[in-house]
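INFO batch 0412 | record 1 of 1 | parsing
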Amino acid sequence: MKGILHHTWGKLIAVALSLSLIAAAGALVFAGTPDPLREVGETLSRPFLRLFSAAAGAVDRAGDYLQGMEKLRAENAALTEEVAQLKGQARAGDLAQAENDRLRDLLGLAQTGQDLTLTSAWVIARTPDNWQGEVVIDQGENQGVAAGQCVIDSHGALVGRVREAGGTWSAVSLVTDPAFQVAGQGARSGVLGTLTGSLDLLPQGQTALTGLTQSDHIQTGEDIVTFAAGDTYPSGLVVGTVAKVTEDPGGLTRSAVLDPAADLDSLGQVFVVTSFQEVR
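INFO prediction complete | emitting tokens
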């Protein structure tokens, strides 16, 4: 656009110069001639003078238009930069608000009486297949992370357990992974069982409390928490809520299918329980 305007402006200037030369030539030719001839010359040159005046006006207008376009282009660039800066500030504000919310949740977790030492970590990768429920976090042995430690979200809900720890990374088996296994307990009924994932429940994002007997009175809607008989992981971490109770093959035992309390599909920041003290 800018090139076209410059080209057009150049043409107009050339035309204007040509017309001025014609007009000047006409004035010189007829200067000093008898009045009738001079009147004829002025008559002939007058249209060229008017055309020159119009062309000069067009050149001025083209110049003003070009300057206006340059000004608009500069203003547009400035506005684009300002919008980008505002978007960046908005994203930073959203991240800060999310971080503030997580810290508030952690404060609430501390006030429940669970004495946990936590190491913050971020999920950096997920298992790409349907046979595992596993994520990789950015903290490892160098930060005190070890295999067997529990991983929770900012609400204190159990995400999974560390399966393997490297120097600066760790693989975490989610509560839905078939290899995941810890002891669980009904928060209301006190019923004990084994929390474990399965290939059948993995696609639905669920896990199960298995090994229940017919006399174990567990109902839908009940929260299931971890139960630690030793010192490998803490008790009382919320795992999920009973969605339904099913009969195992053979009819001798039952299983409670759980909806995990943690949002496993959108994990970002998590916390590794690197040490704990049971509060009785």
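INFO post-check: The CA atoms of residues 22 and 72 lie 38 Å apart.
INFO record closed
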